[in-house]
Specification:
Layout: H1 4-11, E1 20-24, H2 29-38, E2 42-48, E3 65-69, H3 79-84, E4 87-89, H4 93-99, H5 101-106, H6 116-122, H7 124-133, E5 152-160, E6 163-168, H8 171-177, E7 184-188, E8 193-202, E9 209-210, E10 215-228, H9 238-243, E11 250-257, H10 265-283, E12 288-296, E13 302-308, H11 334-347
Parallel strand pairs: 1-2, 1-4, 2-3
Antiparallel strand pairs: 5-6, 5-7, 8-10, 8-12, 9-10, 10-11, 12-13
Helix pairs in contact: 2-11, 6-7
């Protein structure tokens, strides 16, 4: 992994008044480029082969220039070129997936957020330690599949966009569906409403919902649309589907906006606060945008099962703001909030606090 000291050395050669914001042309890049432009930054889109043609349809979100690479791992060989452009990388899920987690950790270009958070979220044992240390309620983990007594969610390591999940109701069903050549985790299945909660942690602001260090914001929330889990039960009851050999799949195809009942907001903020405070103790903090994926039960208990330490695709609804971000600033997307944080840090000579 690139060390903090190396990043600080890179920043000595940067012109803070001529920063360019860059990311891979995928996932949430349209709102990242739009938000950067709104805050006066130049933008650079990274893509393999050629730029996506549909970017021409969105001139306000089209990057000012492109970096064409033969493969995304070629970014590693272009680091010096990127640094000469005063590039700050904004990571998103596709960026990390295409580049590879180890390459992302070693990429010699200043990157928004704390790269150590990726290590903690992608390792099930570390993530569990993080959550338990924060006092967060998680679905029960089942170490021995023979102990399955009711519905469980099985997730393969490295599952992306919901691909690699399945539900089993017994050991027999688990045994029929599992691929034992892959590493997996088994958790109890929680009945309730799925919420993806979009937060932003700033280590350089000390106003609003303040923490021991910095401040926490709730920018928006959404629920995933998954194929075919959201439509499959039109075809019959669970028993009939199993008899027909039809299994639900959980591949992300889109998102639906959500607003929580106001009485839940205190708990939602407390949840984000617990996650951030524990991250500060464990690895120096989860900086910038992050998402807590949770289920809210009919007793209004919040069960957390996943965390993403970067901008997530569910924020793409809110390029012109959400019911929550509008109460802080009009037209505040997560992409724009990232640009604002970089702008404030550059102006106050605090880039070292938000980059890694």
């Amino acid at each position: 992994m690139i060390t903090k000291q190396q990043v600080l050395e890179f920043l000595k050669d940067y012109d803070p008044e001529n920063i360019t914001i860059a990311t891979v042309c995928s996932h949430s890049s349209l709102q990242i480029f739009d938000g950067a432009r709104k805050e006066g930054f130049r933008t650079l889109g990274i893509c393999a082969d050629k730029p996506p043609k549909f970017y021409d349809a969105f001139p306000r979100a089209k990057p000012d220039e492109y970096l064409i690479v033969e493969s995304y791992t070629d970014i590693m060989n272009r680091a010096e070129e990127l640094r000469k452009k005063n590039i700050i990388i904004i990571p998103h899920s596709s960026f990390i997936y295409y580049l590879g987690k180890e390459n992302f950790s070693g990429m010699a270009v200043p990157t928004f957020g704390n790269r150590a958070a990726i290590e903690w979220e992608s390792d099930r044992d570390k993530e569990s330690k993080w959550f338990l240390g924060a006092g967060i309620h998680m679905p029960g983990k089942i170490d021995d599949p023979h102990d399955i007594k009711g519905p469980v969610m099985v997730e393969y390591e490295g599952a992306k966009g919901g691909k690699g999940f399945f539900v089993a109701r017994s050991y027999k069903e688990f045994n029929e569906l599992v691929d034992r050549t892959r590493k997996y985790a088994v958790q109890e299945f929680i009945n309730g409403t799925r919420y993806d909660l979009h937060y932003f942690y700033s280590p350089i602001r000390n106003e609003g919902y303040t923490l021991s260090k910095g401040s926490l914001e709730l920018l928006s929330m959404d629920r995933r649309v998954e194929s075919n889990a959201d439509e499959i039960f039109r075809l019959g009851s669970p028993g009939e589907l199993i008899e027909a050999g039809i299994c639900p799949t959980y591949v992300l195809t889109g998102n639906v906006p959500l607003v929580a009942r106001e009485s839940l907001l205190s708990r939602i903020f407390s949840l984000g606060e617990q996650v951030v405070e524990e991250s500060l103790a464990l690895f120096g903090g989860i900086t910038g945008a992050f998402c807590i994926e949770a289920v809210i039960t009919d007793s209004l208990e919040i069960k957390v099962f996943e965390l993403s330490s970067r901008i997530v695709s569910g924020t793409n609804f809110y390029i012109s703001g959400s019911p929550y971000s509008d109460l802080m600033q009009k037209d505040l997307s997560t992409g724009r909030r990232i640009a604002i944080e970089i702008k404030e840090a550059a102006r106050t000579n605090q880039l070292d606090k938000i980059l890694s």
